[in-house]
Amino acid sequence: MTGLVAGTRVGKDKLDIHPDGEDRRLTGGRDGCRAIAEWSGGKEAGRVILEAAGRHHRALLQSLHVKGLAACVAHTRQSRDFAGAGGRLARTDRADAGVLAAFGVAFADLPAAQPRRSLLDDPGDMPVAREHPAGRRARDRQILSGPGDPVPRSRLPRLVAWIDKAIATYDREIRKLIAGEAGHAESYRVLMSIPGIGPVTAAALICWMGELGSIGGRQAAALIGVAPFARDSGGMKGARHISGGRKRPRDVLFMAAMTAMARSPDMKALNGRLRERGGHHKVALVAVMRKLIVTANALLRDGRMWPARAPG
Questions:
Q1: What contacts 5, CB < 8 A, 6 or more positions away?
Q2: Is 214 exposed, middle or buried (0-12, 13-18, 19+ CB in 10 A)?
Q3: How far apart are CA 92 and CA 154, in angstroms?
Q4: Can you tell me whether residue 75 is helix, strand or coil?
Q5: Pairwise CA distance, residues 112 & 65, whole Å
Q6: Which of 271, 256, 143 is nearest to 202 (CA)?
Q7: pLDDT band at 255 (very low <50, low <70, confident <90, very high)
Q8: Ramachandran sector of residue 308 (left: φ over 0; alpha: ψ -120 to 50; beta: rest)
Q9: Average confidence (pLDDT) over 186-210
Q10: Gyration radius (Cα) of the chain, Å
Q11: Share of the chain above pLDDT 70, in %
Q12: Which of 94, 224, 250, 285 has its CB surrounded by the most CB atoms within 10 Å?
C-alpha cells in the first residue's frame, strides 16, 4: 500500500477526516464529499476508511470512486471492538475518525468497496423501505384483533387496507427489479422452489445475501448469523451459541423456518429429531434456519432446483 490511510466519520451535516494524525472537519452533503475526495487525492491517500452509515456514506464512496481512490467500509462493530482493544473509549466524531484511520493501518488487507446505485434504484434498498409499512401493519392488525368495540369503528381498518396496497406496490417493484437482471431472476426461481421460502424471503436473500452460491455452506451460515460458535476453555465444554451476522435477512429466514417446519417433511423431521434429543425449541429452529441457508447456498452454487431430498 502506498500513501497514507485516512479515516473518515460520515455524518448527516459534517464529515470528519483523520489522516496521519491530522484532524479536519468539513460540511456534509455532496460538496463535502467532493472536497474530501479532492483533498484525499491531493494527499495521495492510499485508502480512505469509512464506517457504514447507510445513505450518508454512499455519496462519499461514490465521490472517492470517481476520483479513482480506494475506499473501504468498516462494520461499526468491528471498529468499536478495535477501539476498545486499544483503550479508546471516547465516542466523538473526531475520535471515531482517528479510530478508523488506525483500523485501516492495522488491517491493510481490507477489500475496497464499490459504490451502489441511488436509493430505491438498488434492490437492496427496496426491502428496507418495505419494512416500515409491514411493521406498522402488524401492529395495527394486533390492535384490531384485541378486545373492545371502539377500534373496529375507527379509521384503523381503512388504514390497514391502505398499508396493504403500499406493501403490494413494494412487492411488485421488488419483483420487477429482480426480474430485470437475468442472474437475479434465476436465483429467485431457485429459491422459490425451496419449501418455506416465499417471495419476501427469496427477495431478501437475493438483495441482502448476494454472496450465496459463491461461498461455502459454513460461510453462508456464519454470514447470516446462524452458525454456532464454540465456548470451550481447558477441560470445560461450553454450550455453542450463534453470534453476529446480518440481522435483516436472519429475521426473514426465521419466519421461513417456521413455515418450513410446518410444510416440509425434511425440515419437520429435522425439528423432530432435535426435540427428541432434548433440544430446546429455539435450538431446533436455528438448526432449521441453518439447514435452509446451507441448502439455498448449495442450490444456487449448482444452479439446481429443490430436490425431493435437501442436499447435505
A1: 19, 20, 45, 46, 47, 48, 49, 101, 104, 105
A2: exposed
A3: 46
A4: coil
A5: 10
A6: 256
A7: very high
A8: alpha
A9: 92
A10: 23
A11: 80
A12: 224
Burial of 178 (0-12, 13-18, 19+ CB in 10 A): buried
What residue type is 224 in one-letter code? I
For 277-296, what is each residue's pLDDT tens digit?
877 788 888 889 999 999 99
Structure-block grid coordinates of residue 36: 474530501
pLDDT tens by residue, 1-12: 445 677 778 777
User: Grid coordinates standing for 16?
Assistant: 470528519
d(CA 192, CA 212): 14
Type of residue at 8: T
